[in-house]
Write a structure and sequence with these properties.
Elements lengths: L23 E7 L6 H11 L20 H6 L6 E7 L2 E7 L7 H10 L2 E7 L9 H13 L3 E6 L8 H11 L7 E3 L1 E5 L10 E6 L4 E4 L6 E3 L6 H17 L5 H7 L6 H14 L3 E5 L13 H10 L12 E2 L18 E10 L3 E10 L1 E2 L4 E5 L15 E5 L3 E5 L2 E5 L2 E2 L3 E5 L9 E4 L5 E2 L9 E7 L2 H17 L4 E4 L6 E5 L2 H13 L5 E4 L2 E2 L2 E4 L3 E9 L6 E11 L6 E5 L11 H14 L10 E9 L7 H17 L3 E15 L3 H10 L3 E8 L3 E9 L6 H8 L5 E11 L2 H8 L6 E2 L2
Parallel strand pairs: 1-3, 1-4, 4-5, 5-11, 6-11, 32-33
Antiparallel strand pairs: 2-3, 7-8, 8-9, 9-10, 12-23, 13-14, 13-22, 14-21, 15-20, 16-17, 16-22, 18-19, 18-21, 24-26, 24-27, 25-26, 28-38, 29-34, 30-31, 31-33, 34-36, 34-37, 35-36
Helix pairs in contact: 1-9, 12-13
Length: 740
């Protein structure tokens, strides 16, 4: 940050193992898809000497996007770790996907990191910052995580660094004086299309130009015409730094006209950044062909190593015993007891399951015996999955760098490493000493609310499907697997369409399971609209022992939630006592199969009134058949209603979108039951909507609210479906109703 070229590159291929937490910086890159995060990581790796040539996202040649799915799609879909060495520090760069469907990977990156670089594109963010980026900023603010902002794509036509700085100040934080640039961009001559190349930076504190027009980074004095705008920006930066200074006398000295020493300002700036009180804005661009450094990359690495905190300064996560009793917070000390967390799980076709682990306390070594414990929570954090724990042996430790893995002999507190074959470890699991197990409090992830029903393509895929789905869910906490007992479908709940596509792609390419997607079906019910009677006659005689059973029933509707009740009002032994349970069994079996559209019958009372039996030919099976026939005859003489599940929905959107959201819910046959004001200019809309109408609501709400809305839903009850929709459902051949 002192505008000096600290060229201390690491060996090509990554960074060596850290010896102490003070020599580690864990930084997550956050920003929307297309903002340039992966390109920036590549430029930083080139500047640090970790690669000899920067790859391009368009060519599928970057270190971060090494997965085959990412290469094909030309975008990041998973968290990746790129470690580099700079100025005596190991810098773990955590590149995250920018698309909202992969927010689970972003949350994992935030858990593993101690500071964040927010990457915003001057070409994308013309008016505001993406909703997912603002949400991540707010999440970092709640935990006090230090943040800096990097503006990219400034060489695009009709872009302005000044406008982008203003937009960032408006969108990030309540204090605009805490979001200020450290450097101003220097642009070359503007072309006919409005394009002006970024040729260098002007350091506001040093008042020197860092020129890259020759392909090398050189320092120059500012031109005479630049002095006045430089002075105004510099004064504002100095005032912003002093306002956040812990030295209360500094402001008095500055207002008295004293020229504050640059070294003092830099030291205060570094402390304010590390505390999360000041958020510098920088700009960066990839290296030109043949150049060894990108524009702004040296300055970014200086900020990371000198301004961002070490793991020693991070607030440790909350830990408990596996039974939930509080335990003392872990200490970031290589000599302390081990506390580590699996922040990501992936599968390698050659190595098997690979776990990315963040060590919060102690030192992790190969062949250590450790206790593995999983919290057993699903994506929403409230529905328990089977908890798992046990003693395991740690496999080989490696430091990842794209597809390459470099062996490590240890991973100290504060550092990150990959562990191969870590038992049945899942994302979010805790590693601790074998004799003294602890459990780290899980981080929150959104509840997946977009259903994807899948079935095996062929017989050979049926055996592999369950194993492949189980592995997917173990790797990604934002996936939820459900075997729907009503429709019999296997449902994978996802966050969005891109999430669905990647899940299917991984099943096919990574696990060799050919699957077909099918329409998701909603569990409907049937009931009688009024009283009805039926007579079941099952009489057959074909020589020898025959079948004889006759029963008469009455069916009446009951209040919702009553299920199927059976009553016996037979008098005079018309139906022998031993066959009355047989009649009930036949009625219940037919009720489960449905009557008009193949959906279970509910909320009725069936009363057995009369019947006939034969001393020889009557049997249990005959009266079961007669009971089913009687129920079918009663249905034929009455109107059968279809019942559909209704969801209680809570939709949180900015105030500007309340009207469109309420109108959309009404168009889905929903009933808005109330609204509540929430913090941050948002409104919570509560509504009851038929489930058949909200199958794709996760996608539709994102489009309607431009990515700013979120919702949750829960089952409320079954209600009668409107006749015109019920007629359409009855015409469909399969059981269940497709969610729209």
């Amino acid at each position: 940050m002192g505008d000096k070229a600290h060229a201390h590159p690491g060996a090509a291929g990554g960074a060596p193992a850290a010896g102490h937490p003070s020599a580690v910086r864990n930084v997550v890159l956050v920003g929307p898809s297309g903002s340039g995060k992966t390109t920036l990581v590549e430029a930083l790796a080139l500047t640090a000497g970790a690669v000899n040539r920067a790859g391009r996202v368009e060519d599928g040649a970057t270190v971060s996007d090494y997965d085959e799915i990412e290469r094909r799609r030309r975008r990041s879909v998973q968290l990746s770790l790129v470690p580099v060495a700079w100025d005596g520090c190991k810098v773990n760069l955590l590149d995250t996907p920018g698309y909202a469907d992969f927010v689970g990977e972003l949350r994992a990156g935030l858990r593993a990191a101690d500071a964040a670089l927010f990457v915003v594109s001057a070409a994308q963010e013309a008016q505001s910052v993406a909703a997912t980026t603002r949400a991540a900023w707010e999440e970092c603010a709640r935990v006090g995580m230090p943040r800096a902002i990097v503006v990219t794509h400034l060489d695009t036509a009709r872009t302005s660094f000044e406008d982008m700085t203003r937009i960032c100040a408006e969108n990030f934080g309540d204090d605009p004086d805490a979001v200020l640039p450290l450097y101003l961009p220097v642009l070359g001559p503007e072309a006919a299309d409005g394009h002006a190349p970024l040729t260098g930076l002007t350091g506001l504190l040093s008042r020197r130009i860092l020129d890259h027009s020759s392909g090398e980074r050189t320092e120059l004095p500012p031109a005479p015409g630049q002095e006045e705008p430089l002075r105004a920006a510099r004064n504002r930066l100095i005032e912003g730094i002093i306002a956040e200074s812990e030295d209360e006398s500094l402001m008095d000295r500055y207002l008295a006209g004293e020229d504050i020493d640059v070294a003092t300002l830099i030291a205060d700036l570094e402390r304010a950044v590390a505390r999360g009180a000041f958020h510098p804005v920088l700009t960066a661009a990839p290296a030109a062909d043949g150049a060894r450094q990108g524009i702004g990359t040296v300055e970014l690495l200086e900020l990371i190593t000198r301004g961002f905190p070490t793991p020693l300064e991070r607030t440790p996560p909350v830990v408990t015993t596996p039974s939930g009793k509080p335990r003392p917070a872990p200490v970031c000390d290589p000599g302390a007891p081990l506390v580590a967390e699996v922040v990501k799980t992936s599968s390698d076709p050659y190595v098997g399951r690979v776990s990315l682990v963040r060590v919060f306390s102690g030192t992790l070594r190969p062949d250590d015996s450790v206790h593995l414990c999983g919290h057993g929570l699903d994506a929403s954090g409230h529905a328990p999955r089977p908890c798992h724990e046990g003693e395991i042996r740690v496999g080989a430790l490696t430091s990842p760098f794209g597809r390459r893995q470099s062996a490590l002999d240890r991973c100290v507190a504060g550092d990150l490493a990959c562990v191969a074959r870590l038992g049945e470890a899942e994302t979010g699991d805790t590693l601790s000493p074998a004799g003294d197990p602890v459990l780290i409090e899980p981080w929150s992830t959104p509840d997946p609310l977009l259903p994807l029903a899948v079935r095996a393509h062929g017989k050979a895929d049926e055996d592999k499907l369950s194993q492949g789905l189980a592995r997917l869910v173990a790797e990604d906490p934002t996936l939820r697997l459900e075997q729907n007992p009503d429709t019999g479908q296997v449902v994978l709940w996802c966050l969005g369409e891109a999430h669905q596509e990647v899940a299917l792609d991984r099943l096919r390419s990574r696990y060799g399971v050919q699957v077909d997607a099918e329409p998701y079906r909603v569990a409907l019910r049937e009931t009688f609209a009024g009283r009805a009677t039926g007579r079941g006659r099952h009489v057959k005689q074909s020589g020898g022992h025959g079948q004889f059973a006759i029963c008469e029933i009455e069916v009446e509707p009951l209040p919702p939630g009553s299920g199927v009740e059976f009553a016996d009002r037979v008098v005079g032994g018309a139906v022998p006592r031993q066959f009355i349970p047989s009649v009930e069994k036949g009625i219940r079996a037919q009720a489960a199969r449905g009557l008009s559209a193949g959906h279970p019958l509910v909320d009725v009372r069936v009363t057995l009134l009369d019947g006939k039996a034969h001393s020889v030919d009557s049997s249990d099976a005959a009266f079961q058949t007669a009971g089913a026939l009687a129920l079918r005859e009663a249905a034929a003489s009455s109107r059968i209603q279809l019942l559909e599940p209704v969801c209680e929905m809570s939709v949180l959107v900015p105030d500007d979108y309340v009207g469109p959201v309420m109108s959309d819910l009404s168009g889905r046959r929903g009933r808005v039951v109330g609204t509540e004001q929430s913090a941050g200019g948002r409104t919570l809309v509560r509504a009851e909507v038929p489930e058949i109408e909200v199958g794709r609501y996760a996608v539709d709400l994102r489009s309607l609210s431009h990515g700013t809305g979120r919702f949750d839903r829960s089952y409320a009850r079954h209600e009668a479906m409107p006749p015109q929709i019920a007629d359409r459902v009855r015409a469909e051949p399969a059981n269940g109703s497709p969610g729209t």
